[in-house]
Amino acid sequence: MKKSALQKARAAYQPKLPVVLTGAVKAVEGKPTHSVADQDDIKALFPNTYGLPEIQFEKDPNPAKGSTPINVGVILSGGQAPGGHNVISGLFDGIKKINRDSRLYGFLMGPGGFVDHKYVELTSEIIDQFRNTGGFDIIGSGRTKLETKAQFDKGLEILKQLDIKALVIIGGDDSNTNACVLAEYYKQINAGVQVIGCPKTIDGDLKNEVIETSFGFDTATKVYSEVIGNIQRDCNSAKKYWHFIKLMGRSASHIALECALQCQPNVCIISEEVEAKKQTLNDIVNSIADIVAARAANGNNYGTVLIPEGLIEFIPAMKVLIAELNDLLAANAAEFATIEPNNRLSWVADRLSAENAGIFTSLPDGVANQLCLDRDPHGNVQVSLIETEKLLGHMVARRLDQMKSEGRYVGKFAAQFHFFGYEGRCADPSNFDADYCYALGFNASCLIRAGVTGYMSSVRNLTKPSVQWIAGGIPITMMMNMERRHGAMKPVIQKALVTLDGAAFTKFAEQRDSWAINTEFVYPGPIQYFGPAEVCDQCSMTLKYEHAAK
Fold first, then answer.
1. Which residue, of 186, 191, 242, 443, has the fewest CB within 10 Å?
2. Residue numbers for the site described as Important for catalytic activity and substrate specificity (predicted)?
């Protein structure tokens, strides 16, 4: 693999481990746990892995001498996130520390490789090429859902063939939900295979008090913030465009909030606030138009607007419409596929409730068609394909024309549109993510040695220097609740949304009125890998605010 000068320098970087993981460790059990909601339902579905205690690792003053080798499998599941290679590197180094003859097998292209028995043994020669690099290309990723007994049994065949005693699934909330189901099944049939999860998603919605952040969030938001800062510098130079910027985050607005804290745009919409205030699409448009007009009155016909990818689903009326659409299209997929494209909107409208039909037919045809596109693997609208930034920009322009005719707006409005998504998913990890991911993988090896299953690797105290981080694990069932998927109730990890009384949102809310009218742009610049810790090793601003008092 040919490497750039930066990659060569990064390959030499040695991620910093929590001091507790640098020697022999022992697992200390806490109190039994329960699911975040729907306790009776989750307990009934996971009788073998429910109610397990939290685990924290401590130094072991009397370590056992000698350990037998262990073979481990690893899967990268779902969308890419910076740092995945370091999770695998940490896992590799961890099992080699248990015994130098331990072996690591990577299943190719995600869970599909596990089911189809496609794998590669990950040797030091392979691992060393990918340390501290972005992407998931070491073994590839995929979105095959592990949810059927046939898949579990097929996967077990290759685990037995390779004498694999533990499987590590690196993924987001849905992937770790699948890991939990797999752990329960293998425990039920006494398969002798441990299943451990690692928290991955740039969206930042896989977290709680013990999983303080998902890996990749720090790097991705720093990449997006650099580009937003560049746009704001251009915006402040040309002084003639309003830039509408959509950011990844279909189910939560953590990315938009973090980028706002870093860049101080004129407008940042937080989907959770829209839902809490029961705002309509027109409410949002009017709010943006009022800020555009206020800035124009000061001679500033330019600015930036940050929009979370999943906004449409948080507008209460739209959320109800989309829920009915999901059920309608799931139940009538075959018939819908036969409808001529020009007739699909009327076909859908005729089958919706009167209120939702009215909302659906009021939408621009382009947006209505986008709401009817094929669902993602989880049965949800593919909100990344809905051009919310253009919808808002065009609606703001119409509103400004109306305000101008009423004598309430004097200015010029020209819009530019952007969507930042893939740009941040495979970046070289920041020092924070490089350290955090390596620690998550190494910690997973400690969970394997502790003999547990159905646990997620947990590294916390993350606002402190990495040597002070706390390592352990939490039962995945602890994070679960019941949600409607494909028209039926299913157990899933509960998504962590932006909390409106949380420290990060409160800090944003305190400042946004000033950002709206004034030009207080911040230009964060590119990620720095080498230099003083205050420049290179800082965690996200969200994490700092959320855990400032700890």
1. 191
2. 174
Torsion of CA 82, 87, 92, 97, to 10 degrees: 140
pLDDT tens readout for residues 312-337: 989 998 889 988 998 898 889 899 99
The verdict on whether residue 83 carries a ligand-binding annotation is no
Q: Are residues 272 and 233 in the same domain?
A: yes
Q: Mapping DSSP to helix (H, G, I), strand (E, B) and coil, where does residue 166 land?
A: strand
Residues 199 and 263 in one domain: no
- Domain assignment of residue 147, given as a range: 68-216+429-459
Q: Are residues 406 and 513 both part of a single domain?
A: yes
Asked if residue 424 belongs to a known ligand binding site, the reply is yes
> H helices within 315-417, ranges in order?
316-331, 333-338, 344-351, 354-362, 365-371, 388-405
How does pLDDT run across 157-169, given as a tens digit for each residue? 999 999 999 999 9
| 309 annotated binding-site participant | yes
Q: Is 249 annotated as a binding residue?
A: yes
Is residue 240 within 8 Å of 302, Cβ to Cβ? yes
Alpha-carbon torsion 339, 342, 348, 350, what sign?
Answer: negative
* Catalytic site positions: 203
> CA-CA-CA-CA torsion for 56, 60, 64, 67, nearest 10 degrees?
50
Please report where in the chains the tokens 């009215």 appear, as a residue: 358
pTM of the model as a whole: 0.93
pLDDT per residue over 501-548, tens digit each? Answer: 999 999 999 999 999 999 999 999 999 999 999 999 999 999 999 998
258 and 306 share one domain: yes
Domains: count for the chain: 2
- Sheet containing strand 267-268, strands side by side: 267-268, 303-308, 242-247, 415-420
